[in-house]
Design goal:
heterodimer, A: about 180 residues, mainly alpha, Rna Polymerase Sigma Factor, Chain: A, Arc Repressor Mutant, subunit A, 2 domains, 9 helices, about 70% helix, B: about 220 residues, alpha+beta, 8-stranded antiparallel beta sheet, 7 helices, about 30% strand, globular
């Protein structure tokens, strides 16, 4: 399974910035699930997550021209979703923070049967990480932040963030390899 | 560099989740509306370079009506299209006490200054603009602050992208070092929930956080 096609997403964002409304359909198909999972992990219920998703697409429609060519379109989109979700919580005077566990417990009754076995294995491995380690994985693999951005979010120096990120990745890879044996 | 293996694992994992159907029609209308507005402005600019001032006004209005699709009034607006009017701290502190209270120290301090304006659209006050400056302790700072007066119901388009700056909880900001100065943009909310947007230039990279600490107490 290839990783997210960043080039395709960036092309869609450029088309959107040029006024091609149909680019929104492409963005929805390409990253809609990631946007929804992120929204749900922050607002913690499906109805609000759907509202956040709708509002995020509206914001992308208005703000696509602020996307700078050559930068990471996926991080741009995830930032819009994250901020929209935080805005919703703040309007309700609810503390705005992510529920990390929600990001790593997706296998409900509606989850794809074909992917369920691998998903459960990944979730079991994630369970063995500390809260700090889960947060680093969330920053890097959900939000697609750079190491420098991870460092800023986590309140670490860049070198410390690099070391910790590398250690978490090695730990997670070892856990997954152990499950495959 | 990220682990390509973990990236694939998480992509597959997330792709197994269900995605609700989302109605994108409102967003698509917004894309088309923005495109029409920009086209109208471009044509008006071209005409203004070749026609007399009176003829430009008549033609620009005609074109705008013809180009814009019929729709309910938008929730976004351009600050450039709105009318600013100077105001005093004293008058605004009576009318908008919660929004001006965080900036009181700039009014009373001898090493700082503040100038206020109200920005109106269609007779409604939509935005408060505050020009701030301060000098002291080796730090010089100039800032322009915008405070929303519509409880979030109207959004100035020029400031919308501030909400998408790097998220740090309730504050989003970015700072760059340009031409020997720190140039910052930030978005936050005041204690009464009002949206607040900041543009700042300073010789000190801690000026933005100092201002944010002051106004978000």
């Amino acid at each position: 399974m290839p990783p997210l096609d960043l080039e395709q997403l960036n092309r869609l964002l450029r088309r959107l910035a040029d006024g091609d409304a149909d680019a929104l359909d492409g963005i929805y198909l390409l990253v809609g699930k990631r946007m929804f999972v992120l929204a749900r992990g922050i607002v913690r219920n499906e109805a609000d997550a759907e509202d956040v998703l709708s509002d995020s697409f509206l914001k992308l429609a208005r703000g696509a021209r602020s996307f700078r060519e050559g930068t990471n379109g996926y991080a741009f989109v995830m930032r819009v979703v994250r901020n929209t979700a935080f805005d919703l919580l703040r309007k309700r005077k609810v503390r705005a923070e992510e529920d990390l566990d929600a990001f790593f417990h997706l296998t409900d009754e509606r989850y794809s049967p074909e992917r369920r076995e691998d998903a459960i294995a990944l979730e079991a491995a994630m369970e063995k990480l500390s809260a700090e380690e889960k947060r680093l994985i969330y920053y890097r693999y959900y939000l697609d932040l750079t190491i420098r951005e991870v460092a800023e979010e986590a309140g670490l120096s860049k070198s410390a963030a690099e070391r910790k990120m590398s250690a978490v990745e090695q730990k997670l890879l070892a856990l997954l390899a152990g499950q495959r044996r | 560099m990220k682990s390509a293996y973990l990236e694939r694992q998480f992509k597959t994992y997330i792709d197994g989740a269900e995605l609700p159907a989302v109605d994108l029609s409102a967003a698509k209308r917004e894309v088309k509306r923005s495109k029409s507005q920009r086209r109208g402005k471009r044509i008006a600019a071209i005409l203004s370079s070749v026609l007399s001032a009176a003829a430009v006004v008549v033609l620009a209005v005609t074109l705008a009506i013809g180009l814009m699709p019929s729709y309910t009034p938008p929730e976004t607006y351009l600050i450039a299209d709105a009318a600013p009017m100077s105001a005093t701290y004293t008058s605004l502190s009576e009318k908008y006490p919660e929004k001006t209270a965080p900036f009181a120290s700039f009014f009373f301090a001898s090493n700082a200054s503040s100038e206020y304006a109200l920005i109106s659209l269609g007779g409604e006050e939509v935005l408060m603009e505050i020009e701030l400056s301060s000098v002291g302790g080796g730090r010089q700072m100039r800032a322009r602050v915008y405070i929303d007066l519509t409880d979030g119901e109207k959004q100035p388009q020029e400031l919308e992208e501030y909400k998408e700056l790097a998220a740090g909880g309730a504050v989003r900001s970015e700072t760059k070092y340009e031409n020997g100065e720190y140039v910052s943009r930030a978005y936050c909310t005041l204690a009464d929930g009002s949206d607040c947007y900041i543009d700042m230039t300073s010789n000190d990279d801690s000026s933005l956080s100092a201002l944010l600490d002051l106004i978000r107490k």
